[in-house]
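QA checklist item 7 of 12: single-chain prediction sanity check.
[x] sequence parsed
[x] length recorded as 301
[x] structure emitted
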Amino acid sequence: MTNPIYIIGNNALAYYLGAQLQSIGDEVIILTEHNGDSYFPVSDGFSLKEDRSLTHKKYQLKTADLMRKPAKMVIITAYANKLNTALSRISTSKIGKAPVVCFTPLKNMSYLSKIVSTNLHQAFFNGYVTFGNGTVSLLGRETNIIIFPPEQGAIDPIVTAAFGSVRIQMFTGDNRLARFWEYFAPYALCSLLTAAENAKISDLLKNKKNNDTLHILVNEFRALAAADGVSLNESTIMKGIFNTPSNYIYPLHQAIINNKRDEFNLISSVITDASMQSNCAFPHTHFLLKKLYNMFLSTTL
């Protein structure tokens, strides 16, 4: 019997990847706090719906609060604001030399490698997955992952074998910083706009005024990326925005609905750091950040 794949995170992406890996014969264990307010007992079973294949299957995943067996691989999907707490469930001795794949979109991975493993791979999930009413839904028909090698070395064969066998198109990445901004720009922009306006991006795009604002925000994000030496193409960002399925709710927007702040700290910190480097003004982006900050403040008083 092979060692299990541990997934650190309690969200739709964790369940989706877990189901995919279990379907090819791997033992998958979700590391999560069983009494957390967002905990869902995936061990009781859940449905998986995929728009691209019109499939609807049932899965059950094991859960645990700590690693008890050596890992074959570790996958991190936790939201950035919950990452440190989630990492308290790992055991470096149980990880050993096993590969760690991090889907949490961190701009700087150096601190994480010191905590979990030097065999750390950054990855981006380009797709739209949601969870509700006991069902994980993969929305849209274009889904892929990009995986990067550790700072020193090549992509671990275990990673290649696992993700190469599931029903997700896999690419290996280069120029990690450029790929980060290509992922982050449309994701963060849509997250801020939909959360601030409490509306799905598909509904916002029906309004011409919102479209005009969108173009201004895109150019502000291009300037933010330029502060890191990354040149973003406007049409690439716009394509990422317009590809959003009509019924998709971004995690930050969903957090606002649930009186939480998932992803806000991550998004705001990346924007703040880049704006300080650029010495430029980003009025529309900062307006959205301030609006959301005041919303969070009003709900915590």
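[x] summary fact logged: Residues 176-197 form the longest helix (22 residues).
[ ] second reviewer sign-off
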